[in-house]
């Protein structure tokens, strides 16, 4: 939007403070005041939204109001409809049978989820498999690290191969990147996934053997004489899931007229997509026996928490994104000016995607690269030349946007949902900072350095 670029040039650096406050609230309140946070996180989120909205609307009036409306109507509502549908539909798919949380079984679930993520989205794959993984490890004492590696692989890295996998790649597809071009990320994705799986196997094997020695009488840790065969229930939800994937894919293959609502231009095709996705969720609620969700220990709290907190995140992060998109004319110009080499794009896109929405971050640095190499050229033509002449830049941007989503709980929406589901199941998940210090800095950053040295 032209108005968004204009607003990005006007915004002062202090307009990013409410977003910083929102992040700190998510990080600190669950650690320092967990009961207060659990009861009042919606009010805290609303306070930060007001802190972002009121000053900018008072100063910039209609320009700011339209931008926030655009973020809410054009970005947040489709985002939460998709998450709601995937969460609802996957909650109606019940995998029953004897699953012992051994290193081999856990690794098999992680590999399956990593493969599925590119074809049914990281959110769909994560919501489908997190509950079977938690049930398989119900009697394991050390479980949090398994959920963290699940976030690394299934909720993030696995989505790198197709536009269906992660929103930034889908945006690229809409802008002219061929559907199967993202298979160029196969080697870095395979390398990163291989490293993470190898580390996971070593850690899980250690804790599995240690628990087996300490509790040799535990029947869960002994070979089971009677095993219940693996069965899948709620299979009609697979049809509803295919409907969601088809609706998402349809919105990238056709081009319909636009309509204007409160000054916001909305494509009729996008409205149709969101209607179909929401209808698939309703079908799942109506046609899935309630017992399947009960056996899945399904509740609405995780999606409620994500909807409330990400409403705050979307609104408060809007000034940061607009300043980035303003490029050399915005207050964050020092970031975009410093990006010149492929590895710069990989780390800049990635680090910002760790805390901001990775889809607009991807578009910001894609446009930065296009402006550098092909200034003034029309978008699809410029993307075609970038792919032919400088493909490493687009690979670096794409990989950074997808891989670095695993760096924090808010780096990608399924991260937060997986954490919430795990905590509801009694898994003591690390805090916001604990996750980053223990796992992201200790495991992901060294792995990303290796990816940079080898590929970018």
Helix content: over 70%
> What is the C-alpha radius of gyration, as a whole number of Å?
22 Å
State mean pLDDT (0 to 100 scale).
84
Tally of separate domains: 1
**Helix-strand string:** HHHHEHHHHEHEEHHHHHHHHHH
**Poorly predicted spans:** 221-225
What does this molecule look like?
With 456 residues, this protein is mainly α. The protein has one domain. It is 71% helix and 3% strand. It contains 19 helices and four strands. It has helices at residues 2-10, 17-32, 34-60, 62-91, 103-136, 144-153, 167-175, 186-214, 236-253, 268-287, 290-295, 301-325, 333-337, 342-353, 358-373, 379-389, 391-403, 413-424, 432-455, and strands at 94-96, 231-233, 258-261, 264-267. The strands form two sheets. The chain has a two-stranded antiparallel sheet. Strands 3-4 form a two-stranded antiparallel sheet. Helix 1 crosses helix 12 (301-325). The two termini are 31 Å apart. Residues 221-225 have low confidence and may be disordered.
Task: Please render the helix and strand layout as text.
Layout: H1 2-10, H2 17-32, H3 34-60, H4 62-91, E1 94-96, H5 103-136, H6 144-153, H7 167-175, H8 186-214, E2 231-233, H9 236-253, E3 258-261, E4 264-267, H10 268-287, H11 290-295, H12 301-325, H13 333-337, H14 342-353, H15 358-373, H16 379-389, H17 391-403, H18 413-424, H19 432-455
Key structural traits:
456 residues; mainly alpha; two-stranded antiparallel ribbon; 71% helix
Kindly summarize this structure in a few lines.
The protein is mostly helical and 456 residues long. It has one domain (2-455).
